[in-house]
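A quick word before the example. In earlier lectures we treated sequence and structure as two separate objects. From today on, think of them as two lines of the same record. Here is Peptide ABC transporter ATP-binding protein written that way.
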Amino acid sequence: MTEPLLVARDLRRGFASGGRRVAALDGVSLAIAPGETLGLVGGSGCGKSTLARVLTRLVAPEGGSIAFMGDDWLALGGGRLRAARRHMQMVFQDPLAAFNPRATVGGVIADALRIHAMVPKAGRAAEAARLIDRVGLPSGLTGRSIRDISGGQRQRVAIARAIAVRPRLVILDEAVSALDVSVRGRILELLVGLQRETGVGYLFISHDLAVVRAVSHRIAVMAAGRIVEEGPAAGVIAAPSSDVLIDLIGAVPRLTGIIRPERSEDRQDDAY
Ligand SMILES: Nc1ncnc2c1ncn2[C@@H]1O[C@H](COP(=O)(O)OP(=O)(O)OP(=O)(O)O)[C@@H](O)[C@H]1O
Ligand SMILES: [Mg+2]
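And the structure line, produced from the sequence above:
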């Protein structure tokens, strides 16, 4: 079996809220293999974003351990941390908040290449152009400010920036949730295509089960700070055991592949 890329064990993190303590992470364990997509679903407030922030070290856990690429991730510091950080990238729901709004599309990507010394200075513009093309953006957007492009375009820039540094793992927290259905479908296709090319692993977080189902090899279901169910995507959805997942399945009218939606003329009447 391949070495797991990421192994988290018994992660704990609470927050004080209105005089009481909320256990946002109440003993969460998970593993992601290279080239694998682990989908993470669960209702609002169950701890998904806290888990993303703890894994990326934006928030410190109060307990538990994380091994990333074989290192004790929580113990890494200095240059080794900087080098390893390159390999764990994150894409948020609202990329505007994650960018300097005055930066240009090309500038954002060139900056990522510079910070992680990916290509020599002379090659940066060409590599940025290649990435802009790879995520399906027109080259004419290169000089445009991040503020002046659409949400779907901005999400593609966020993905281009994340993959620019050739990470091993990308954590996507509601990364396509704000996008309309057709843009979302194209971005999911892009993510799957990039995974096939590069073997990147994804932690794909969403409250939308249909979207998670379309891209995930395995699915973990979270409720109240714990993973309550986990397994191969098709199996988990075919035989849900937790109330949360049963509710999430009930909320999706028809669970079909979003990556390759069937053409309307192929559809059987009884599919509805
Ligand atoms: N910085 C914080 N300070 C106080 N409480 C917090 C903080 N971050 C998260 N929480 C609380 O921790 C719990 C989990 O929040 P989290 O944002 O991880 O949930 P989520 O699953 O991402 O929800 P959503 O689907 O709405 O994004 C919630 O009760 C939330 O209010
Ligand atoms: Mg969240």
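Notice the following. The longest strand covers residues 20-32. We will return to this example when we discuss secondary structure assignment.
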